[in-house]
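pasting for the record
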Amino acid sequence: MPIVTYQFESSESKAVTKDQTPAAMEQWAQKAMAHLTKDRLVPTPDNFSVYYAYYADANPNLTMAMNALIDQHGGLDQGHCTELYLAHLSLEAEHKVLQEASQTISNEIKQVMGVLEQSSDDSTQYNATLNNFNGALQSTVSLEQIRSAVARVANETRVMAEQNQRLHAQLSHSTQELTEMRFNLDEVRKASLIDPLTNVGNRKYFDLELERILEEAEENGTPVSLLMGDIDHFKKFNDTFGHLIGDEVLKLVARTLVENLKGRDIIARYGGEEFVILMPQTSVNDAEKVGNQLRTILATKKICRRRTNETLGTVTISIGATQYIPKEDPEIFIDRADKALYEAKQTGRNKVIASKPE
């Protein structure tokens, strides 16, 4: 079943003002490490940042969500920790990058505008000089006056040429800066949609793709099906062999799904040990067949401990399948697949249960 999620007003809350001395920060770090050890989690940067933010009280929404999970489960598992990081801390990192990018763009625009304003002033002066020169030529003037006018025009022409060179250099620099920034922002956006452990899409990616694909299905009148899979006895496997082996199981499942699905199918880690597969242009009957193929292929995979080459067993998965009903609420669509998954888990596991539209 999916991890219970808690919605609060904002996931980008300001840090609470409190003691920021090195001694206090060291104490928060020690408490974070102790809690990670207690929950038997690997102290990766993402995991540590969740626990550190909790003890530093740096994100009230994270603190509330983490307290709720602790009250409900007695502690966090890797799935909970990943969900907390993606919901509360990865968004803050993305927001920070966007703020920095906005400031850089603003600075570049100010520099270009400054050069353009200077160029405009120089152009006005240059235009006045040319008009004066033209007037001088049409009046009776001495050779010395003409020579002086020509010198002024030559000088203004040189100033304009230098200004144009500076403008060209500034525009070239700004173009390079903005192109690089666009690339970096694209990379940040891509990273924000990928589950860092399994390298498939995350919940945010699934939500975005679900909206897009359902819109296309409504416009084209084509079917859309959903598979929701949950690894059987994952918690027991985690408790027996440790979270590092549990992570390898998650990676194996994700890799198996990617290798055995069509390119148009959307694969995402929905939470913890649960995966979803959104299948455009696919009926529930075909989705059920694909689900059984995936389940059968996965059951042939062996989990091994690398350093000893010891075989630890095989992995099975239970799957719920359903088809989108036009105009229905997407949450109802997902809930129907979730209920089918629950039935598969309750009636023996390692099977596919399809909820078919009447």
